[in-house]
Amino acid sequence: MADNKKLKFLKTILPGRILAESKRTDEELVQVELTTPDHLDGFMSTIHRLVLVTRNKSTGEEKTSNLMVKVMKGDQSFRDSCQSPKQFCNEIFIYTKVIPCFQQLLESSKCSVRGDRWCPKVVFGVAGKIPEYSDCSETILVMENIALEGFKAGPRNDLDEDHLVLMARNIAQFHACTYAMKITKDPRLEELVKGIIPFDFVSEGKVLDSYAMFFKMGLDRLFEYLDKNPKLLDSERFKNDISALRSRYAEAPVHLMQKLLHQDEFSVILHGDYNRNNVLFKYENGKPVDIRMFDFQENRYGTPAIDLTFFMCMSMPTGLRERFWYPLLEQYHDSLMLTLTDILKCDTNDPRLAPFSYENFKKHLQRYGMYGGMIAVHFLPWMICPEEECAQLAFHFANDMYSPEMKHWLNTAGGEAVDIRLTEVFKHLSLQGYFAVVHED
């Protein structure tokens, strides 16, 4: 019954509100088609396809709008455990306030970067009570369906250099807007940062239980594998780093994650969940040439390492990771400086840019670079396990994330391939000195 109420709202009431929000008062609805493809669902959202056919009241000309409607999954208990309402409100804030502000910044400075090419265009967003939809507090986000423009998902997890460079250079442009506003002391930045509801792993001594469990189980799995294969601890540095991680954070790694949310001069408005599953690529002759990002649910104001090391630890296979780690960071930083100098109309020797130099950026990453490894330790099994195992994880996550079945799949999904990959990721982070934060008092 509840689902029928929701579907009725999406099909009969929402279209009119979309037209009103878009100021398309000269158009009337001719046809509405609503479908719900299973493969588009996110971990905390359901995504519907909505096709609107409208007719101009004066000319009779018909127009078809292909849209995606994103709504929250689960009952109130599930949403509360994941802090879904907070995440979805933040996502709407990014689309409706942050990105438009960044676009205005780019346009007013006559920058060659176009902010309207970062994401699908949002045509409607609302958060709060929607009585016609449900009795709970809800969020509804409606975006253009860019699949019709040729954008599609990339490889399931592992990316090659072309994909990785697109991701790095794209997010650098987004980050550059925060730095430009910092440098020019733009008063709008403070308002944007204040508008993001803090999404902490630990707040006032209380931990975010669902994340705490996933981080702990991920580390437990890694430690268990290393105990069975001690020869993999093949250097004193790696052995000491893993020992410190175990002694300090094995019981509650969520506190390490909270430590990595510390803000400093490098802090920017983040995507927060910048990974292969939250971007779409456009291809020409099999090569990725353009990118769009979406799903800003976990956005924060914090270290750029959150957006960078997430996808680098997840999607750089062994071999490429070791060879291309720093060239990719250079691509990011080059794009960052290129965008900054274009916005500010200065050259790279401008003293205002000195705090954000590549050397300072690399030092910053040594303090915050563990973030990607800690994400990978719990999320990599989802992304590289067989699809049937991923379906089991998704099912138990939605129905009872604390169940024995969920814990079983978290500990086994992907088999030894996951264990080996995670060991290689952590060994790489150790070699780069990214365990420094683990050793801090």
From TrEMBL:
It holds the Pfam family EcKL. SMART domains: CHK (SM00587). This is Putative juvenile hormone-inducible protein. InterPro entries: CHK_kinase-like, EcKL, Kinase-like_dom_sf. Residues 141-342 form the CHK kinase-like domain.
